[in-house]
Amino acid sequence: MNHIAALQAIVTTDRFEGEPTDAELDAIEWEMPVITAEIALLDAQIMTIDRPVTELDTRRVRRARRRVLAARRGLSNLSAAVTVPGGAA
Question: How far apart are the first and last CA of the chain?
Answer without folding.
Answer: 58
